[in-house]
Amino acid sequence: MSDLIGKSLGSYRILEQIGVGGMATIYKAYQPGMDRYVAIKVLPHYLANDQQFVQRFRREAQAIAKLEHPHILPVFDYGEHEGVTYIAMRYVEAGTLKEIMAQGQMPLDEISRIIGQVGDALDYAHRLGVVHRDIKPSNILVDAQGNTYLTDFGLARIMESSQQFTASGVSVGTPAYMSPEQGKGIKVDHRSDIYSLGVMLYEMVAGQVPYAAETPLAVLLKHITDPLPLPRKVKPDIPEPVELVILRALAKEPGDRYQSASELAQGLATAVRRAAPLPISPQKSTLPAAQPPLTETPDEHPSLITRVQRSWQTPRGKALLVGGTAVILILFGFLITQLNKADVAITNGDVVAPTASVAAQIVAETAVPSPTAVIPTPTES
Predict the structure, then answer these.
(1) Alpha-carbon distance 16 to 4, whole Å?
(2) Residue 134 is a catalytic residue
(3) One of 134, 189, 226, 350 is an active-site residue; which one?
(4) In which element (H, E) is residue 37 found?
(5) What is the pLDDT of residues 274-298, one digit of tens each?
């Protein structure tokens, strides 16, 4: 439908084609009245002649337009113009989750965050009775901040109302992500979306979808009958708790799966936390604590020993200490010589007989005389 570029659909001016899928072609358009860009999803033109489809389209489009959730791409409008059926949605300058996954393996905590956002959006829709039916990475937009937006809500259900579409042999949904009950063609409920979310989780963690074959029908048969290839056989470093979450999400029987998308997301978040390595906490050492290097602490009144030690650390101080010590020794020797000469006493300039040493003399002079008995002398009668 590239011939729509440059034309108008209702109040929308088609600018360029930005995507194409099995059920619709997507264009970037401008809405002058609101001065904004929008994304226009145009359905196959032959469906406009199917009155059953037109009635179902209007009913489903009204239900989808009522969905207001932070992680669901809002629907602004829907309509028919000159045989073209379209849905107008918010335009997001972003890529798809499929494009992000193609860049390489994502960390588990990021996978858990995305599954949490998509699961929350699905829970909200399921509470309102809306089943998506086509959960896959290409239907999830991711903006520059990493926020996800689930799109194409109810589009598969709208397509199911067209006998021409289903009779053409085109699968309603994407075989690689379809639940066993979808493959069997029986009535589905919200647990079919949970299975598809589990397939997407398997692909994000293991790097590939669980089932692949040469034809879409062969893929559907594998979803119905083949045992699930164990994720850890495909990628051995997948943590076991994460593998258990995937196994439960992809149970063949709907009753054996998680019963809500948020339950799946919470199970994955718990498994990722359990799989994360524990932080290494510092352990107390039994060795004595290392002593800080000795540094001089300023002291306003250092002791004599401290001053000598400080002086000895410098060449100049060491020379002064050695020289000072030598001078002190010379003076001390001179003093000893002078004390030995003091054995000679000098009185009034005359030399007298040698006496006791000066020290002994000082002691003798300062000593207190001991008392003596007075013996009376006899007198003459």
Answers:
(1) 9
(2) yes
(3) 134
(4) strand 36-42
(5) 987 655 444 444 444 444 444 444 4
